[in-house]
Write a structure and sequence with these properties.
The chain is built from four helices and four strands, in the order αβαβααββ. The termini are far apart. By secondary structure, it is α+β, with helices and mostly antiparallel strands. It has a single domain, classed as 3-Layer(aba) Sandwich (Rossmann fold), CATH 3.40.50. It has a four-stranded mixed sheet. It is globular, with a radius of gyration of 15 Å.
Length: 119
């Protein structure tokens, strides 16, 4: 993926999500798709995403909705496969953000989107 991004003239980095190599308030938009349940520390990852988001910026985290039976099955299978996945409900993801974050949760099927704006 990084090679494809570089081939399109984009800058790609390979780094832990808990320690992003970007200055504070770098990005106006951040999207994280189907990945938060795979990081080592979800709270540290959310802190880093929040830190690098500019005021007025928007962050979208898309995750499988663990409240649905389909995702519960996936979570069990990933545990049996010895993956370190840790699925959180959309409300628990939202609770990781600091006070003052404007948060909206949307769901459809077995997906959830936690949409966060930094005022």
């Amino acid at each position: 993926m990084l090679a494809e991004a570089r081939g399109k003239g984009l800058i790609g980095v390979n780094t832990p999500a808990e320690l992003l190599p970007f200055a504070d308030e770098t990005f106006e938009r951040i999207i994280m798709v189907d990945a938060l349940h795979h990081v080592m520390s979800q709270s540290e990852t959310v802190s880093e995403l929040w830190r690098t988001l500019k005021p007025g910026g928007r962050l979208v985290i898309e995750e499988p909705d663990v409240r649905t039976w389909q995702v519960k099955i996936v979570a069990v299978v990933e545990k049996l496969a010895l993956m370190r996945s840790h699925f959180l409900s959309p409300e628990k993801i939202a609770a990781l953000f600091p006070p003052g974050a404007k948060i909206k949760i949307e769901t459809a099927g077995y997906n959830a989107w936690v949409i966060v704006e930094k005022e």
